[in-house]
Sequence to fold (242 residues):
Amino acid sequence: MTTRILEDYQTLSVTAADEIIAAVKSNPAAVLCLAAGDTPKLAYALLGQKAKNESVSFAGCTFIGLDEWVGIAPENEGTCRHFLYRNLFGPLGIRAAQIHLFDGLAKDLGGECNKMNDVIAGKKGIDLMLVGVGMNGHIGFNEPGTPVESYSHVVDLDSTTQTVGQKYFTQATALRQGITLGLKHFLGSGRGVLVAAGRKKAEVIRQALEGPLTTSMPASIIRRHANGIAILDAEAASLLKV
Ligand code: F6R
Fold:
């Protein structure tokens, strides 16, 4: 794993966008799994112009959803689906046939997990997986304690995720469960990118990168990724020793 510490959120976002562009340059049919959330938002906003400048097309790529809130309607603007259409798929003109997202309203959530595992296996895995890190160290909705061997699964969200997740919703919303790709998907991806920005992420980043390698801190898995990179801004990196 390598770590890159950038001056601020702007330069972090440029670096994260460059990672995505590089993956598509090296494989125009890349399978990309890109997190929702505040951290990668600016990186996604930069992608369109960068792709144009570097003559990169996303038309041959496949997009895999990382996770979704269970039981929340897709038109709710707090959903990961809504976020991805608004910030990524819409602006980049990605076609529906290129997109595979979890249905958080599916009656058969287990079947939804199997379906996603099969899509990924059918594509021979994910080429680039970009994840944020939660205040409890989760990546995707792999909450503390999730086994490293996990594939897609349904999870009871921990209280931190239920509380922090309110920031995506315009009104108080009961967030009890999530559906998510597993840590094994992350470890198996061709390139694993973890992004974190801001002082509020500093302690969790310290634990993830310099604390024990443990399932209690899911983000520490980045250190086990053969081709992993942590992209941090100076504030998120401010408690690291090196
Ligand atoms: C979102 C996701 C979450 C977030 C994490 C950080 O798809 O999987 O794990 O990446 O909670 O969220 P932000 O970036 O909003 O701090």
User: Anything to note?
Assistant: The two ends are 14 Å apart (CA to CA).
